[in-house]
User: Fold these one by one.
Assistant:
Number 1:
Amino acid sequence: MSIRLSNGSEIPIEMHKIRIVQKVRLAPVRERLQAMDEAGYNTFLLRTRDIFMDMLTDSGTNAMTDNQQAAMLQADDAYAGSESFYKLLDAVKEIFGYQYLLPVHQGRAAEHLLAKSFIKPGDFIPMNYHFTTTKAHFNLVGGTVLELFGPDALVTESDKPFKGNMDLGRLKETIDKVGAGKIPFVRMEATTNLIGGQPFSLANLHEIKKLIAPLGIPLFVDGSLISENAYFIRQREPKYANASIKDIIREIMEVADLCYLSGRKSCSVRGGFIATNRKDLYETIRPWLPVYEGFYTYGGMSSKEIEAMAVGVREMTELEIAGSSADAIKYLVEQLIENKVPVVTPPGGLACHVDAMRFVSHVPQSEYPAGSLAAAVYIISGIRGMERGSISMDRDEEGNDVPSDMELLRLAVPRRVFTMSHFQYAADRIKWLYEHRSMIGGLEFCEEPPILRFFAGRLKPKNNWGAKLAEAFEKDFGPNC
Ligand code: F0G
């Protein structure tokens, strides 16, 4: 929720009290430089003891509510038939309107089961944009991902409200070209992660459904950030201005044939599920659940997490909770714009995205500008963000780098974790870095895993730019900052 101040400006306002806290430390810049060296210039490989603000992800890092924590005490740890499962099923029926539920240990496990159940070699899966683990799973079973985004999707500075929409013309062309028989499903991702957390509109979803339903192609929604997408629909799609988040989520689910999600984001719990009303889809997936995840009533989640998820699924439909990170992201984006830092607009869900292609325009894509920027931000601030650019793309079959459509530094905003002063600190340090951006150089790989290389790859800075940047920072702020 945002609130208007007497001077007319808006600030995000916390609709909660903070009653449990976790200590963090701001390591001095020299220590941060050393930590970055040891991490191979890959923010995934840092240790949290060296991190001041962890903005790597909003996944599994949200603050739970007291009600979620309390529910965990009631966990029924039965291997089969656990009451905790039935509580989650009730919540999914109420919020999603779906009666069939397959719990999984996290989002990518759902992707694995969907790939295993529906995709054959030679199939094509149209989507608004890929997510890293989605693409990996769909490719592993021989499928080809087709990203059918519209002309606005990749324009970083924009006022288009729904850059996560699918281009209907491109979808029609694809179906004509490859044939409906080669398309096991169409996937729409709520607030498309890799292009700046940009939502789709309900109008777009209805249009997609109208086109594919007569051809027998089902529509799957990745609902990991469903409450944020619903929040944006309420804000940006005039027809829904007075609708509740619950009503909007319900309508999305009525249009979709199936929803799967990582519970680690909107639901603020570690886990995930697949849900649907289509018995045929459910029965195709169901046999694989105990093979890869766990028995039907826990599917790889602990009963405690299932309990917390049952609460989280309902709570995410409360307006203040659905908008808690979106409003903070908007604030940070606006602060950075004020400081002339290039960011993705309009502000999206999950993170503030800094446009590395414009921030370090002197670093060529072959030297991973978003990776460089992520490392530089950590060195000068202790803030850990995530590279979402060419390092996050794996090489093609010939071993060539695949340049990413966008080079973004993602500064994720976990729900209810940071305060205003944190965001002000972040905006200030990034402003300093922007003024010293010419000092940031490129990166090259030293160790490169063959798949999802961004997780464990190690890189090094060209011409030792990290050390020079740390030195300049120390000169301005002193050794203890
Ligand atoms: N789908 C989307 C849209 C996601 O953002 C993620 C994870 C997944 C699926 C996979 O879910 O992590 O529970 O297995 N996104 C995390 C992130 C990793 O940091 O953005 P998971």
Number 2:
Amino acid sequence: MPGDRRNETVLILGGTREAADLARQLVADRPDARIITSLAGRTREPAPLEGEVRTGGFGGAPGLARFIEYQGVTQLIDATHPFARQISANAAEAARLTGVPFEVRTRNPWTKRPGDRWTDVKTLEEARDAIPSGARVLLALGSQHIRLFSSREDVHFVVRMIDRPEEPLSLPDHSLVLGRPGDSAAVETMLLLAYSVTHIVCRNSGGKAAYAKIEAARQLGLPVIMVERTA
Ligand code: NAP
């Protein structure tokens, strides 16, 4: 709230497990500070967060800069997903415009371990084209990227989503699984086996939360088509 008398106001750009952990830690460590997490609003029922939460776009870098000034933000932390490029660019620009201290907390990418069978690709288009005909693919991507794969009529896709999509998926042949990613390799193995998955397509987002499926793929000897991070 404007006019809040606390000296410190930390704005965390979130939407990730790491941002939620950070909010919890800051609320515990800095009881005199206002800790605000910002969410884009893509998930209908986001997991509960410690501290304050605000939801929805700011209106680009200028909108974020206005928010920072109006709310008296004293520290800005970008803890968004490593593939959420626009908000990170906006955060850097808003920090430049306002001069607010700015920190980026990006997860390290996963690195290949013995037993991993990864095909590294640079783009989602390359990932789509690398899927062999007849494959059954766990498409572990955000809903906005699913449409790109609709030309692969020769592939069965398994799509997991937190919320039921408002419109039917544009994929010709698919199974829809509603729920959050499993947090252990054992849970992910059950999914992969239940749907007879032969390949996984995902992006190298790093972090613990999404790693369970990579571990499960290694244990089952399944190939992973991995979209690399670009600089
Ligand atoms: P994006 O393409 O970088 O952002 C698009 C627009 O969404 C931004 O310009 C901004 O709108 C708004 N936005 C994004 N993150 C926001 C936040 N934390 N708070 C307020 N507004 C936000 O982002 P995205 O890839 O769609 O991801 C959206 C959110 O989901 C991010 O917060 C990210 O951490 C989370 N997430 C993304 C992925 C992924 O694979 N990309 C995976 C897991 C979680 P305005 O310009 O209007 O401010």
